[in-house]
Amino acid sequence: MSLIVFYFDSYYSSEAMVYITYLSIIATFPLLFDVVFDYKYIIALFIIFSIEILINIYTNYTLFYNQKILFSEIRIRRINEVLQLFLCIIINIYFIYQLKIKHLNKIQIIEQNLFEKLPTSEEFEILHQLVINKDPLFMEKFKLIYPFFEKKLLELSPNMIISELQVCAFMKLKLTTKEIAYYSNSSIRSIEGKKYRIRKKLNLDSDVDLLVFIYKI
């Protein structure tokens, strides 16, 4: 690309301002390269651009100059170069903004995961004791220890009901179907039915282990 710019920069003479295209190319660097890892390529390109510009300056833009070009053509070319640079910068700003938004969202997810710490053995024991006692405050305590669990489930399946969320909480604690049925005063068949509906609402394939999927949330 720079060789094409180099050629037409001389072809139209310096009056056409074709050299502005170098700035358009440089404006794409933030999208094409990683400054930290690709700095060698960036330096190499700057050296190439500099050599090409210096050659045209040294030859007074006559290396490929076309003497038949009219001034009106040069003026049109000059306007085109300015508009091209302006458009390139606008597009670049837009894409950089989009990348920044994605980066901020990624940071937000990472921070959220950091805040969602694993429960201590004491907290885990408290939850199990609440389950054993069939304490109605179990879900409230569970939400305090796993603050993002229910939110993530509802993001995956907004139509999940409270009783299904409770079954998911029991599965998060690695309780078996029989244990869940006993501690929730339900039948095994009823719990199996809820698990089936949970799987459907989460759109899980038949080869996905529901217990493992829930535990990883």
What layout of secondary structure does this protein have?
Layout (H helix, E strand, L loop, with lengths): L1 H10 L8 H8 L1 H4 L6 H20 L12 H45 L5 H12 L5 H8 L3 H8 L5 H11 L4 H7 L4 H14 L8 H7 L1
Helix pairs in contact: 1-4, 2-5, 6-7, 9-11, 9-12, 10-11
Could you explain how this protein is built, in words?
By secondary structure, the chain is mainly alpha-helical. It has helices spanning 2-11, 20-27, 29-32, 39-58, 71-115, 121-132, 138-145, 149-156, 162-172, 177-183, 188-201, 210-216. Helix 1 (2-11) runs parallel beside helix 4 (39-58), helix 9 (162-172) crosses helix 11 and helix 9 crosses helix 12 (210-216).
- Catalogue the unreliable spans: none
Write down the Rg. 32 Å
- Relative helix content: over 70%
- Major beta sheet summary: none
Can you count the beta strands?
0
Characteristics:
217 residues; mainly alpha; 12 helices; rod-shaped
Give the gist of this structure:
The protein has 217 residues and is mostly helical. The chain contains 12 helices and no strands.
